[in-house]
Amino acid sequence: MSITLLFLVLTIATSVASPLNQIHLLKPHPGSAGHKHSKLNCLSWRLAVETNNIQKWKQVPEACENYVGHYMLGKQYRKDVDLVAAEAYEYAKGLNITKDGKDVWVFDIDETTLSNLPYYARDTVAFGAIPYNATAFNAWIEEAAGPAIPGTLKLYKRLIKLGFKIVFLTGTEAAYAEARTKNMKAIGYTKWEKLIYKEEGDGSGVVYKQAKRKALEEAGYRIRGNMGDQWSDLLGTNAGDRVFKVPDPMYYIG
Ligand SMILES: *[C@@H]1O[C@H](CO)[C@@H](O)[C@H](O)[C@H]1NC(C)=O
Ligand SMILES: *[C@@H]1O[C@H](CO)[C@@H](O)[C@H](O)[C@H]1NC(C)=O
Ligand SMILES: [Mg+2]
């Protein structure tokens, strides 16, 4: 090897090793050979869940328990809800409300108007990373201790001022109506046109909710807006003039 060539090789080797000349994108990633997707990106997972690209998921992936917990308890969740609520209000404000009392806004309850976070933050629930336990969750409903979701409560009050009638359409079973009604009133949801609970035989979330919305429209109500944390609150027939999805990365109801 000539002296000149050796010099050139050394120069290249040095410049590659120098931190200033690193080309990050070309660096091999450990474990990238066939294991590219082994590390779940929790922000991507949450986005896919919110957009209904991931469906029928049973629980929060174990790897994302901390991520979901931080998201739900931190500022981001509250800000995300606030923005949806603000957008809904801007839309509602522009509508022509008639005085016949038939312009309604449909709200879901759990994780839309009322939060179950004190339950979901328990070690035995782990923000949805531990499989759903109906016995434990129903006992929590009976406590009637769920706090309001601030952004949605504010929207609820503003919609009433605009002249909308409120319909709560919940997947909560009628057996828990007393506790739920008490809870809703205690946290500021003091009036409504209807509060509809799920009865035995009502079917899946989407089937039940579309049937109830259809019945509302058949009774002459105009569903001007519809807000929920599950896509099953918002999909199906008679969905309303416009739907609003608030975040919920803790559980999926089809
Ligand atoms: C508002 O709605 C009522 C009833 O649907 C209708 O008669 C009226 O023309 C509407 N007004 C405007 C400004 O769109
Ligand atoms: C579900 O919750 C109940 C009540 O807290 C508890 O007794 C039961 O062991 C739980 N079941 C499972 C599978 O964790
Ligand atoms: Mg809900």
TrEMBL record:
Regions crossing the membrane: none
Signal sequence extent: 1-17
Lineage top rank: taxon: Eukaryota
Cross-referenced InterPro entries: Acid_phosphat_B-like, Acid_phosphatase_pln, APS1/VSP, HAD-like_sf, HAD_sf
Keywords, alphabetical: Glycoprotein, Signal, Storage protein
GO molecular function list: acid phosphatase activity; nutrient reservoir activity
Keyword Glycoprotein among UniProt keywords: yes
Summary of the function given for this chain in its UniProt record: May function as somatic storage protein during early seedling development.
Similarity remark: Belongs to the APS1/VSP family.
Descriptive protein name: Acid phosphatase, class B-like protein
